[in-house]
Specification:
Layout lengths: L2 E6 L1 H5 L12 E2 L2 E2 H4 L2 H6 L1 H15 L6 H8 L5 E6 L5 H5 L4 E3 L2 E8 L6 E3 L16 E5 L9 H9 L3 E5 L21 E4 L13 E4 L3 H13 L1
Length: 227
């Protein structure tokens, strides 16, 4: 069974109503990203950071997977599928995808500030005074700017072993995730689905661009793979 690795970004979740991209001014829903997505921001104003992610969490619980998420599940009938996502939502899992690797953490989990191995499922608000089993403050289980991406080495191994790479809804501008396409074996087919693809066509071999939003592009991909 052929192995397909699917790398997803904010574009696939946008159709479910999740606003995840920061705008051109470096703002994320009115906040400087360093205020709400960095260790320094958390040390400076933990209440602001927790409130920001509480709002994101509440929003996530109200939205649903869209057709792009659901159509990717159909591929599992004929292929060995691994999804590597930059998104912190759980929409792939809710759609039914069985093998999902989160590069940047998960919004519905929290972890200890003194032991990063202590991770808890969390669907309510996280507040100052919510403690881990070692009596340390809990924080969002999110990879912030300036922090290591612990799953990146595993992601490299998965990509290096795939037969087909599919990239959906990501600008390929956020590193280190953007470099993953460079680890595919020579002559591995790559499909890039994005309505405004900003990618160096000459940098990748056997590249097919599908310039559509995720829901439309995934349907076209399914037809291509049938052939």
């Amino acid at each position: 069974m052929k192995k397909i690795v699917i790398l997803t970004g904010a574009g696939i979740s946008a159709e479910s109503g999740i606003q995840t991209f920061r705008d051109a001014n470096g703002l994320w829903e009115g906040h400087d990203v360093m205020e709400v997505a960095s260790p320094e921001g958390f040390r400076k104003n933990p209440e602001l950071v927790l409130d920001f992610y509480n709002q994101r969490r509440q929003q996530l619980l109200k939205v649903k997977p869209n057709t792009a998420h659901k159509d990717l599940v159909l591929l599992e009938k004929n292929y060995d599928i691994t999804i590597i996502t930059q998104n912190v939502d759980d929409l792939h899992e809710r759609a039914g995808s069985k093998n999902v690797l989160h590069l940047h953490g998960e919004l519905l989990k929290v972890r200890s500030t003194c032991d990063e191995q202590l991770v808890y499922t969390w669907k309510k608000d996280l507040n100052i005074g919510d403690l881990c089993d070692k009596n340390c403050q809990l924080r969002p289980h999110i990879v912030w700017f300036g922090e290591a991406v612990p799953m990146f080495e595993k992601a490299i191994d998965i990509v290096a072993d795939c037969d087909i790479l599919v990239i959906i809804g990501t600008s390929m501008q956020v590193y280190p995730a953007a470099s993953l396409a460079n680890y595919v074996m020579h002559n591995t087919p790559i499909y890039f689905i994005d309505p405004d693809p900003k990618i160096n066509k000459n940098a990748l071999k056997k590249l097919t661009i599908i310039p559509k939003k995720a829901s439309e592009g995934v349907k076209e991909l399914l037809e291509i793979l049938k052939k």
